[in-house]
Write a structure and sequence with these properties.
heterodimer; A: 159 residues; alpha+beta; Ubiquitin-like (UB roll); DNA polymerase, domain 1; 2 domains; 5-stranded mixed β-sheet; 5 strands; B: 782 residues; Aldehyde Oxidoreductase, domain 3; Aldehyde Oxidoreductase, domain 4; 7-stranded mixed β-sheet; 20 helices; globular
Chain lengths: 159, 782
Amino acid sequence: MSATVHVEVTVNGERREADVEARLLLVHWLRDELGLTGTHVGCDTTNCGACTVHLNGEAVKSCTVLTAQADGAEVTTIEGLSGDGGLHPVQAAFMDKHGLQCGFCTPGMIMAAADLLARNPNPSDDEIRHGLEGNLCRCTGYHNIVEAVKSAAGSGVPA
Amino acid sequence: MSAIGEAMRRKEDPRMITGRGRYTEDISLPGMLHAVIVRSPEAHAAITSIDTSAARERDGVVAVLTGEDMAGDFAAPLAMVWAPPGVEIKTPEHWPLKRGEVKHVGDPVAVVVATTRHIAVDAAEDVIVEYDPKPAVVDPEAAIADGAPLVWEQFGTNKTHEWAVSGGDIDAALAEADVTVELRLVNHRTSGAPIEPRCSVAESRAGDLTLYSTTQVPHIARFVLSGMLGIPEDQLRVVAPDVGGGFGAKLQVYAEEALVLALAKRLHRPVKWIETRSEHMTTSHHGRDQINYVTLGTKSDGTLTGCRVRTIADLGAYQQLITPFIPTLGFPVMGGCYRFPAIDINITGVFTNKMCTDAIRGAGRPEATYWIELAMDRLAEELGMDKLELRRKNFIPKEEFPFETALGIVYDSGDYHGTLDKLLEHFDVEAFRSEQASLRDEGVYRGVGFSTWVEVCGLAPSRAVGPQGVGLQAAFWESANVRVTPTGSAIVYTGTSPHGQGLDTSFAQIAGDILGIDPQNVDVLHGDTDQGTWGWDTYGSRSLAVGGEAIVRAAQRVQEKAKRICAALLEAAPEDIDLTDGKYQVRGSPDKSMTMAEIAGAAHIPPNELPADIEPGLEESAFYDPENFVFPFGAHACVVDVDAETGKVQVVRYVAVDDCGPAINPMLIEGQVHGGIVHAIGQALYEQVVYDDEGQLVTGTFVDYALPTAAEVPSFETDRTETPSPVNTLGVKGIGEAGTIAATPAVAAAVLDALKPLGVTELDMPMTPMRVWQAIQEGGAA
């Protein structure tokens, strides 16, 4: 596997260039090459959502995107979600409502929730639950995740 | 102001919500190599040849090693640590890489080490292994029938052991019963499935080995792995960094941990192995997998006479750390909340060509709770009695605690009527029944299930479960080291090893209160064998009841010394110093006081006024072995709707009242209850590890193994009663497994209640749409 692809990607506001293997998944580039280890891998089949990041402002599972496909795009990871270094309202709400336990699904869950609220600022419980069904959590039973998303919705998430 | 009892926000969270957690897979060391394991695609076969030549030729491949190549790397095989007095347990040698034969799909046969993971994955596909397949045995009851293929020929049988315990005269008890019920219940095989798969990173520096691993048991791992490698314990450090959930699946010492250590030692470079999800489903130990034959007897007025259970436990192909012990772990609570004059249990362990079973959240107690609660429901039906009335009639009354069961187990505390009463304040049964009836008229099949549960946790009094007790070759006390720094912060090391429970927070609340330090300035350390006292790690809902009590004792010793220092400097008697609102004050003279920071300063830079008999420093340790287990309990109600057209079950309401003693942090308790219930809903409705008749795993991914998502489950209504345990100072009991233990029978019973008008009286879990639909067709009332 020697075929490489040149990519230019804006990651968390910073322009990055690299020659990557054509088969390199975006999640592996973020974690292994850029050291952004907040994005996690929990399955092989795009089920768990622990690797969720924003690609051009939309939530994607970065285990199912080739780095090459991100050429020219803007990628935001959990490390860059809040931009200025404070907490994004969804991050703050997850802490306030005890929306995490082991923390492994949390970055992906927060990225998915932020995307959900950007598209639907005042979701019902049912819309939250269905909006997050692509992200698995084994610890919380989802109850407090739903509470966190509702709470963040009330606090005005930037679209 | 007391921090204990406050819903303090978690100290763990700031790093985790910003992507700054450090999980094992996040660790990258200079010169690190990547290991990928070549695994058996056969359930049972002789290895006839392994050709590694093509793999070795690939650029970037550093080593390709087979079981034969690594035979000299290990001084001992993987450990199984249960030796019950008087019972022989058949235990085959279990080496990290297999030689000769493979015994289940996923059995490791070779390891490839390369400079990148991609290269190692490619090279692993180049390893050519030839197998001569042998007949596999998959069903545990078939495995102990005459003429079954043998997993291990040398034993001449697939039966691993038989373990029994009895109290009272069970034959007489069942003979004098007016009504008996007999049930065959299946607690099917499940996966722990933490969202973080396993990962291990090993490095060797001039002979000193370090293992970073996704483990719940770093101290036990050092103990076992140093023995496997034949090195003194001081040459091995084991670190559990942030661990992304365990649920028992990481209560193990795994082949891969031993392998990466041996490879790092052999190759003098760090080596990392990352488990794929498919590997997790295949080779991280599974849980449950019991068939239980249950007999309950009762007088015609509903007074229970006896309980007999025969269990067939499918242990898989090998014995891992405590594989054969897990079915036994449920026995202390096999009579549930009820007074049984006689109890009798017999467990038969069985080898099959599947991955080993071992502890998964609840470990033995969910199985016991499932059978006792479903059997109680059946008994109520037979007697024509209300299910809750039958329970109430047989509850051990509050006044009789501590209560010794027929098996000689002493339940520490309980108020079973109290939790049920509280449940019924939230759940109006009469209103539900009328709603249920009117919905049925509309074609909606709604049902309710109840679980009044008790569990045994706080593992454990060493005398009860150690070598001379039940026979585990270990002890189960816990330790803590509490150190106050010169400026008055505290460092608490606990021998427990959390992986999501929030102990950084709850333990800081406990230590902070006792020391008079803001919990925000109490740093809780754990999971590093080079950092603090020896400990016995985290499982069996033991961290707070055992580890927390060790912290109480160590912190009290520090407080005592702080009072002596304070007394000496304020010219008072130590017994006249009170800790009030974070200040050490002379009783009756509120103007004479010191803060912990001032005392800590004096402890580290002693003023000349300090008597010479007070040693410098402010640090104490404690080791605590509990006198008894603790027995949390509660009452749950689950409401489901069943779609009779499709068989789909939806949980529409869930009410849980639990009692784990006084709350240290009620927010954390609720979180544990929510997660535990969803784990149980998964088991009851969706999750099952399935092997086909040839021993091929057909649920190897999250596509086939269905964890509940947010869309499948409701929000929960939770409440608590607080009955303190007399066993420890805090009065606390475990809550980490309670939801999983309690909820499975409640969900299953709710489905059966919904299906009753359709002629369905029994149904095995998981109650998937297909199974429910088939049961409805066979029920004949559709």
